[in-house]
Each structure stands twice: as C-alpha cells, then as structure tokens.
C-alpha cells in the first residue's frame, strides 16, 4: 500500500503551485489526500485537484458522508505527514492559537503526525510581530517550516513571503520522512559578495546576492548536515539552522573559513574579490580637482585553492566559476589550477542577470565529465547539488 500525505491547500495566490507539488509527490509513490479550505476554492477548483490527485477532495467538516466513510479524527491520522501549502497568515494564526473552526484547522489540531508549513503571504504580513510570534509558537509546538523565500510577489512588492518552490517542499517532505543522510557531515559554504574598502564610505564589491549559496545551505540542512555558512554582503535571508558567520572582506572570509574547519565538504559559492585595496584610507578621501586618487590593489588569498590543497582537505571541494566568455574552457582550467573536485560553471552576460536572479543555468564540471543542467531555479540547483553531495 502506498504511503499517504495530506496536503492542506490554503487560500493564497500560491495555491496553484500545490498541483505541481501533488505531481512531484505522486512520482515519489505517495498517495495524496487533498484538503481544500473554503478560501482556497477561490483560487483553485476542487475539480482540478481531484483530477490531478486522483482522490476525493475533502473540504467540509460537516460533510456527513465523510464522517461515515472516514471521520475527521481518523482523517487527521491516516497520513504520514500533514503539509499545509500555502500556509496563509490566517491559517498560521489559527494553528498557533488552537482554533478548529473548519476541516483544515481541525485536522491540524487533532493530528498525531508531523505538520509541515509552507508559508505564503505579503512581506509585511510575514514581518508583522503577530505572525512572528505565531511562527515561534508553532516551532515550539514542533511544526516544521519550509520557506518562505524572498522575491517578487503577486502583489508587486518584493521581499520574504513567497511560498517555497514545490521541488523544495517535496525534498523537505522526503527528508522529514527519511533518515538524515548527511547528519554526520560538517559542510562549509561561502556565500555572497566580499567588500574591499577604499575608505570608510567607499568600497569595491560585486553583484552577488547570496541566493545560490543560501539555497544550497537550505538543501543540505534538510539532509541533516551541520552547515557553516560564511557569508559576505547578501540581501537574502540567511539559512535557518546553519552556523552563520558574517564577514566583510576576502581576508576576513579566509580567516573565518580556516578557523572553523576541518570540514567533510567545502562549497565555495561566494563571489570573492580577487584583490584588496593596499592603500586603504582611514579617512574619507577628499575630492581634488587636480588629481584623482590612485587605488593600489594587492591579490587576496584564494580560499578555494588553499582549502583544496590544505592538509585537512575536505573529501569533496566544490567551486563556482562565473565567466563572461569561454565558459567551459575557463572553468576546466579553474578546476585544475585550484585543485577542487567540481566546478559549477555559469555564464555571465553583460547585464550580469545571473546575480540576484532566482534562476540559473549551470554546468557541472569534474575531471572526468561535464554535465549541462537545464535552466532551473536556484532552489532546484541547491537540491540537485545536495543530492550530488549525498551520493558522493
Ligand atoms: O578565480 P575566480 O574568482 O574566478 O574563482 C571562482 C571560485 O573561486 C569561486 O568558487 C570562489 O568562491 C572562489 N574564490 C575563493 N577565493 C578567492 C577568489 C575566488 O575562494 N580569493
């Protein structure tokens, strides 16, 4: 008999994504028990859910037929796991306060199984102290959370509140239900952009957002790894459950990396400045109309290269290469020069559209092969890389 998962679909714009989630879970051989809240039925029809899930859609607490077939207490317990996607601010508030005024909230209150929430709401609603308090309470009650992610929202605003991608939710479900395969692994991730100061107000940096490093960290944490996340400048939410070490310059990043090792796996996803300003000014440089200031640059230490050649070398070292031209050729020579095991290569166009974007197209280059992955979300790349590490 197939294992069952209950998916409670809340009333949010992300409700349509639950169809993809159902498909993903079916391909992992789960039977889906769909539950639709009243407000979710404004976004998605019961018909489309039953067509995809090939199961009856439950929505009403007082449907007597259901009570004779399967009572709501029984319904709350038949599955391995209850997943709420999208989990709206309203549902979260009800769960946190033990309210049971419809089928979805009653199932969550009555279940003896784990509940996984995939929050989805406007950024202000997510940041509201009431929601924050509810989330804290739910975590203390033992609820699991995935996301929300950062990005553009249906309402036009930007920030945290987008529901996690169906692939991320699927992988979180799989990892909740199975052994944590990387639970004895300590994994380093460098992420974000370094900053090299010219004077107290000016600096040299780059457009790296830290999205890719964070997605990899999240995927590895879900597999039980101990993640040491050394991050430079980043606008993205830091991975929950990782040890976060904030740094500014490449040299600070270098020190943090070598102070916190050794590691089983190292992933250098940070966009590290190749140079630092040798003649950094302790005071703001004044504008002079006679002469422009001269910036003298010196080479930074190379974290990826030094960790690959270190005495306590991790079993697996992964670097990144962002190139504007001759992508594969340059990435291959980087693999050899730096001595790492894998290079994740991505092409940068003139507009640097990879940076800050939620999608990317990468090639995975190792000594014996090059595999081109199709364009996918950075979350999906994180998942696939974590699978690759797990299978290593
Ligand atoms: O040499 P390049 O900067 O193109 O190499 C990119 C790879 O090397 C990335 O994985 C980056 O994190 C890493 N790197 C590093 N330390 C540096 C420069 C790059 O770890 N100083």
Question: What report would you give on this structure?
Answer:
The chain is an alpha/beta fold and 392 residues long. It folds into two domains: 3-177, Flavin prenyltransferase-like (Rossmann fold), CATH 3.40.50; 186-391, Rossmann fold, CATH 3.40.50. The protein has 14 helices and 21 strands. The chain has helices at residues 17-27, 46-53, 64-69, 72-75, 89-96, 103-110, 123-127, 129-141, 166-177, 211-222, 250-259, 303-308, 327-338, 378-391; strands at 3-9, 30-36, 81-87, 114-119, 144-145, 149-152, 158-162, 186-191, 196-197, 203-204, 226-231, 243-246, 265-268, 275-277, 297-299, 316-323, 342-347, 359-360, 362-366, 370-372, 376-377. Strands 12-11-8-13-16-17-19-20 form an eight-stranded mixed sheet, sandwiched between helices. Helix 1 links the parallel strand 1 (3-9) and strand 2. Helix 1 packs across helix 9. The protein is elongated. Cytidine-5'-monophosphate is lined by residues 190, 250, 268, 270, 272, 274, 300, 302-304, 319-321, 334.
Molecular shape = elongated
Give a list of the ligands.
Answer: cytidine-5'-monophosphate
Largest sheet, strands/sense/barrel = 8 strands, mixed
Beta-strand level of the residues, as a percent range? Answer: 15-25%
Short description:
The chain is of the alpha/beta class and 392 residues long. The chain contains 14 helices and 21 strands. Helix 1 (17-27) runs parallel beside helix 2 and helix 5 (89-96) crosses helix 8.
Topology:
Layout: E1 3-9, H1 17-27, E2 30-36, H2 46-53, H3 64-69, H4 72-75, E3 81-87, H5 89-96, H6 103-110, E4 114-119, H7 123-127, H8 129-141, E5 144-145, E6 149-152, E7 158-162, H9 166-177, E8 186-191, E9 196-197, E10 203-204, H10 211-222, E11 226-231, E12 243-246, H11 250-259, E13 265-268, E14 275-277, E15 297-299, H12 303-308, E16 316-323, H13 327-338, E17 342-347, E18 359-360, E19 362-366, E20 370-372, E21 376-377, H14 378-391
Parallel strand pairs: 1-2, 1-3, 3-4, 4-5, 8-11, 8-13, 11-12, 13-16, 16-17
Antiparallel strand pairs: 6-7, 9-10, 14-15, 17-19, 18-21, 19-20
The structure holds cytidine-5'-monophosphate.
Cytidine-5'-monophosphate binds at residues 190, 250, 268, 270, 272, 274, 300, 302-304, 319-321, 334.
């Amino acid at each position: 008999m197939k294992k069952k998962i209950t998916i409670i679909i809340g009333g949010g714009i992300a409700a349509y994504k639950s169809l993809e989630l159902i498909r993903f879970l079916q391909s992992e051989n789960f039977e889906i028990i769909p539950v639709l809240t009243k407000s979710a039925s404004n976004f998605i029809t019961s018909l489309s859910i039953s067509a995809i899930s090939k199961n009856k859609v439950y929505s009403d607490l007082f449907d007597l037929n259901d009570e004779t077939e399967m009572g709501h207490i029984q319904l709350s317990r038949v599955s391995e796991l209850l997943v709420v996607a999208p989990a709206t601010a309203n549902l979260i508030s009800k769960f946190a306060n033990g309210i049971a005024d419809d089928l979805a909230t009653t199932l969550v209150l009555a279940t003896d199984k784990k509940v996984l929430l995939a929050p989805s709401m406007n950024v202000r609603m997510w940041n509201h102290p009431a929601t924050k308090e509810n989330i804290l309470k739910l975590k203390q009650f033992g609820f699991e959370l995935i996301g929300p992610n950062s990005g553009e929202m249906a309402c036009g605003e930007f920030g945290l509140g987008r529901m996690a991608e169906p692939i991320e939710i699927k992988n979180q479900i799989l990892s909740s239900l199975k052994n944590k395969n990387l639970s004895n692994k300590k994994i380093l991730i460098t992420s974000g952009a370094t900053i090299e100061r010219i004077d107290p107000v000016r600096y040299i940096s780059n457009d790296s957002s830290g999205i890719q490093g964070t997605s990899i960290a999240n995927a590895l944490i879900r597999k039980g790894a101990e993640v040491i996340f050394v991050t430079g400048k980043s606008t993205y939410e830091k991975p929950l459950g990782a040890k976060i070490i904030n740094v500014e310059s490449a040299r600070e990043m270098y020190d943090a990396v070598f102070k916190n090792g050794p590691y089983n796996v190292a992933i250098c996803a940070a966009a590290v400045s190749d140079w630092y300003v040798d003649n950094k000014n302790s005071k703001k440089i004044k504008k002079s109309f006679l002469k422009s200031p001269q910036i003298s640059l010196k080479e930074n230490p190379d974290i990826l290269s030094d960790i690959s050649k270190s005495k306590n070398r991790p079993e697996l070292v992964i670097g990144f290469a962002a190139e504007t031209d001759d992508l594969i050729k340059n990435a291959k020579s980087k693999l050899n020069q730096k001595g790492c095991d894998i290079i994740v290569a991505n092409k940068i166009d003139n507009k640097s559209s990879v940076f800050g974007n939620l999608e990317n197209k990468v090639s995975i280059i190792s000594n014996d092969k090059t595999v081109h992955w199709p364009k996918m979300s950075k979350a999906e790349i994180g998942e696939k890389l974590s699978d690759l590490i797990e299978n290593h």
